[in-house]
Amino acid sequence: MRRSLTKISSEQALSTRETQKFELGAQSVALIEVMIDGANAGILFQESLQIRNSLISAYSTIMRLDL
Q1: Which of 14, 49, 53, 63 has its CA 20 to 30 A from that of 23?
Q2: What is the pTM (predicted TM-score) of this model?
């Protein structure tokens, strides 16, 4: 789980760095790279939210069980 969160964080940081470079006019960064990096970061973040929501739902279900 920690590795996944680290990967998500690094992808978001990469996306931010690439966006900033592009906005500042760096010739080494193409718009398509910025768009792809942003999309990848967004997809990973959404995936982590879905996993979190599933875990919370499972925990809530277990807590409602009569033992």
Answers
A1: 49
A2: 0.77
